[in-house]
Amino acid sequence: MSDPLADKVLLAPRVAPERGAENALTRRINADPEGVEQGLAQLVLTIVELLRQLMERQALHRIDGGGLDDTQIERLGQTFMMLERRMQELKDEFGLEDSDLNLDLGPLGRLL
Amino acid sequence: MICVYAITRAPAPDIDVHSVARGGLAAIFSSVEAAPEPTPDALLAHERVVEQVMAVQPVLPVQFGMTLADEGALAGLLDERRAAFEESLASVDGCVELSVRVRWTPSNTAATGSGREYLADRFEERRRADEVHRPLAGLARSSTSRSEPGLLAAAYLVPAEAVGPFTGRLEAIRDEHPALDFSCTGPWPPYSFVGDR
Asked: Would you kindly state where each structural domain of chain B is located, as residue ranges?
């Protein structure tokens, strides 16, 4: 089957992207009784991931501005590294992918 | 129930859809039984309608699936949001959206366990994304981007006549960065630049 959007490709990737469109269209927080725990985890982890990214950005700004000494930088780096690792463990535990940790805010676009 | 495709300046008589016009603004819609399901075919059909309108005049594409009770409600929306719609139409006039995605293998020296190295990686990631995004943003009227380790996803609002120079610049950037995998799609309606419709 030919791709109806082939005429939209101005520069093709060397590696074909994974086809996630179907999933993206149907993504909702899962709230049925069996899936409620996972749905809640998805929501909570999405918020945590948002905060993690904001804090990491803030930390990079501060380091860039020269406001931190070596010990502080090392400790910050350790903290973010552990946080990222822990996030990965939680995602694995609840069977979530990076792409699940996002919310469609309708007219506002995507959260992350 | 009606399903809305786009807000624009004048009715689109050449297309098989309905229009409602209110003094310098128009909305393109069709009648539906129920809110449409987001199947690939339905999305493509929606996209094609918006593009047909875009071919002749500036559009504010409406996100797929927006429904209103009837034509009167739509006319009311045009009246109520007139200033915002006119401003948005002026901001996208003559422009199309180009989408750029860049992938690479994220650097991962964090395996050494050093916090400093970990942050250095994050710096490196941002530098990479910036090296691609900055020069392209310079060619665009407006731009939006997000990046995560190994990915830059950006959209650029580019004057229609500047699409060629834009993709030319992108190809030049690609040639300078053999380790990065680029893709670019478009021209699209300005989905990423219509604010809160």
From this structure: 2-92, 95-193
Q: What is the Rg, in whole angstroms, of the alpha carbon atoms belonging to chain B?
A: 20
In a domain, A64, yes or no: yes
Whether the pLDDT of residue B170 is over 70: the answer is yes
Examine residue A108 and state whether it is found in any structural domain, yes or no. no
Question: Residue B100: which of B191, B181, B196 has the closest Cα?
Answer: B181
* Residue with tokens 């950005």, as numbered in its chain: A57
What is the average per-residue pLDDT within A48-52? 87
Say if residue B26's pLDDT is above 70.
yes
Across the A/B interface, how many CB contacts are shorter than 8 Å? 83
For residue A63, the chain B residue with the least C-alpha distance is B119
Is B182–A80 a contact, with Cβ atoms under 8 angstroms apart?
no
Flag whether A22 is in a domain: no
CATH fit for domain B95-193, picks 3.40.50.150, 3.40.50.300, 3.30.70.600, 3.30.70.890: 3.30.70.600
On whether the pTM is more than 0.95, the answer is no
Question: What pLDDT score was predicted for residue A4?
Answer: 67
B143: which strand partners? B156
What is the rounded CA–CA span in Å between residue A57 and residue A51? 10
In total, how many domains does chain A have?
A: 1
Alpha-carbon gap, residue B26 to B12, rounded angstroms: 9
The first and second tokens of residue B189, run together, are 């309606």
Pairing type for strands A9-11 and B181-188 reads antiparallel
Which of residues 39 through 68 in chain A touch B, CB cutoff 8 A? 56, 59-60, 63-64
Q: Which residues of A touch B98 (CB under 8 A)?
A: 10
Is pLDDT above 70 for B107?
yes
B87-90, long-range: CB < 8 A, 24+ apart: B88/B7, B88/B60, B88/B194, B88/B195, B88/B197, B89/B7, B89/B8, B89/B9, B89/B58, B89/B59, B89/B60, B90/B58
Its domain, for residue A86, covers 30-99
In a domain? residue A40: yes
